[in-house]
Amino acid sequence: MQTGKLLAAKSKNTYILKLLGDVRLTLCCTLDQLFEQVFSDREVESIVIDLSQADNLDSTTLGLLAKIAVKASVAGLNQPSIISSNSDITLLLESMGFRQYFLIMEQPVTTDKALEEVPQLAGSEEHIRTKVLEAHRTLMSMNDSNREAFKSVVQALEECPHPT
Amino acid sequence: MRKSQQEAALTYQQELEQENADLKTALAMLRQDQQAGYHVQQSLLPANPTQLDAYRLDYWLKPSLYLSGDFVDCWAQGEHQLLFYLADVSGHGASSAFVTILIKYLLGKYCEQEDFSPAQLCMRVNEELLAGGLDKHLTLVLGCLDTQTGNLTYALGAHLPVPLLIDAEGEVKELSGTGMPIGLFPDAHYKDYTCQFPQGGRLCIASDGILELLPGQGLEERQQYWHRWVVETGGNLEALLERLPVAEGSWPDDVTLMTITGC
């Protein structure tokens, strides 16, 4: 297993964080600084986390990803996306309830060329809104308690003005 | 070699020896410090086994180094309720161990005040951890077993591997339900699940550290192994421990096993 590595890049209005190998974070000070930078950067509208080449994430890393979702929501950014093609990692993310906070996608991003296309994939607010609306509607249709729980979300999304 | 060079080499050697001795002393002090912490944490664990009416709780906890981010606790809530939990705090070592003590304190305090359901307890701990800004989260299995009726109410906080329930015939099934991790998301909701504890049955809970010791590649396969081991051992703690690799040095993560057996 490859030792964990963390790469970061900004492309247009999207911030991309790529995690590779066996990611075990024991010290997060530098990452906290990185976050400060990302969330104070007014140009950043969406965040994409690429886990397609990650083999394993430790609990600290998961905590960190969750923090991104919470911070993004507070900062009024688009729902962050996660690219996970490793079924094990997807299972882990799902067990942690991440699907509620991230748009989890399967497409791997492996080439520089593909990396440039990421903003189009996840940067479109309309696209994400539709996806989220769809997901919440599905959840609502699943049972009564869900219907109550997600009613306000769906309402808010439906009332949300479409980007021009 | 000239005389001055010889002297320089000798001085250098002496300096190195002194530094080596200093390092050894410092290391011994740190180790003693950790060991003292270990003893405090161990003394905060419940009696092993703990018996309440016809149910017995056994556990086994092995820290990765000295201090553990895994923790178990149980106590009699009222006369015939056994409240128990297994918590796995993110990371391991001292920082995670501090959080296990905080959790023990918080849950104890909440349960003294009022009768909270497992889901309500999860929600309160979630709020408290987020408010504390510790940047630590945990996965949790928290249950309350009525020892008179065998009724088990529990909440799950994103815990892996999924706890397993074995009936007297040896049939194993997963505790159903899902839940968010504790201390990550401000709006996390938790749900109380109920089931009947099978007569003469057993509940088997492990922290995810066990998955790193199991054969197989990946989470799914290792969870299947965990399931298989429980089937083959009937969830007997001693038998499960015999299957674990002999510990050499430190383990990658803390490992905890906990069983509740109905007699």
From TrEMBL, chain A:
Gene3D superfamilies referenced in this protein's UniProt entry, alphabetically: STAS domain
InterPro entries xrefs: STAS_dom (IPR002645), STAS_dom_sf (IPR036513), UCP029548_STAS-type (IPR014557)
Positions of the STAS domain: 4-118
SUPFAM superfamilies according to UniProt: SpoIIaa-like (SSF52091)
Protein name: Anti-anti-sigma regulatory factor (Antagonist of anti-sigma factor)
Natural source organism: Marinospirillum celere
